[in-house]
Amino acid sequence: MGLKKSILLIILILIIDQVSKFYIKTNFVLGESVDVYNWFKILFIENEGAAWGAKLSDILPISDNTGKLVLTIFRLFAIVGIGYWLFDIIKKQSPRTYILAVCLIFAGALGNILDSVFYGVLFDASNGNVATLFSDEPYGSLFYGKVVDMLYFPMVDTTWPEWMPYFGGSRFRFFEPVFNIADTAISTGVGILIVFNKRVFGEHDEEVDTSITSEEDYLSAKE
After folding, report:
1. Can you give the pLDDT of all 223 residues of the chain as single tens digits?
2. What is the DSSP letter of 123?
3. Using CA atoms, how far apart are residues 133 and 117, in angstroms rounded to an integer?
4. 183 is an active site residue
5. Which of 17, 88, 149, 209 is an active site residue?
6. Distance linking the first and last C-alpha atoms of the chain
């Protein structure tokens, strides 16, 4: 998988991710939901923190604004590192599966970074009303945007039996997190690296082994 195809894939994911977020922001009020199926809903929420809504201010003795800024800056450094990683494996002609996985991770990370960096100055607040693009009164500032999430799969929504210790009578819902296309791309990329670990990281070694036909070839390959 070459550089051009990788760039096209990344652009395609970014377009789908951003179009879906723009649509939700400009058509849904915060907290509004639409049932697609019993097990799939479009639910508009905004994530101010990291994965699963976690905040640095919940862990460190810093304000929410400082935590948000630190997280956004960290994401920017991370995307540079992932970009270098992707360029390096393309240059080395790594296995296609490997490049595909890193493309997905890069595109997903970049998609959420766009929200964090720019959405605060592009939109006004979605609380109680539909947001306006290029509003005169944006809800935040540069680097203080919120990530838009909307995909929700409550495939199981029930209550634990009363006889169960500790959990009895409490509500159980699977799958609870609300996420977006960018999150899906990241999770898929990481999943590919885990599931196809041997194919991703062992393919080059196998190719070298099949090309060795003599002891001299083996010693040359080792050098």
Report:
1. 899 999 999 999 999 999 999 999 999 999 999 999 989 999 999 987 665 556 665 666 677 778 788 888 988 999 999 999 999 999 999 999 999 999 999 999 999 999 999 999 999 999 999 999 999 999 999 999 999 999 999 888 888 888 888 888 888 888 888 999 999 999 999 999 999 888 777 655 444 444 445 555 545 554 5
2. B
3. 15
4. yes
5. 149
6. 28
* 175 three-state secondary structure: coil
The residues, ordered by sequence, that sit 6+ positions from 90 with a Cβ below 8 Å of its Cβ are 1, 2, 3, 6, 99
CA–CA separation, 41 vs 152, rounded Å?
Answer: 5
Amino acid residing at 198: K
- The radius of gyration of the chain from alpha carbons, rounded to an integer in Å, stands at 22
Q: Which two tokens stand for residue 21?
A: 């977020």
Catalytic residue among 17, 115, 124, 183: 183
- Bridge partners for 42 per DSSP: 34, 151
User: 173: alpha, beta or left, given left = phi > 0 and alpha = psi -120 to 50?
Assistant: beta
Quick one: tokens of 45? 């929420």
Helix, strand, coil % (nearest 5) of the chain?
Answer: 55, 15, 30
Catalytic site residue 157? Answer: no
Token duo for residue 77: 């450094």
b/e per residue, 155-193, with b = 16+ CB within 10 A? eeeeeeeeeeeeeeeeeeeeeeebbbbbbbbbebbeebb
Tokens of 93: 């002609």
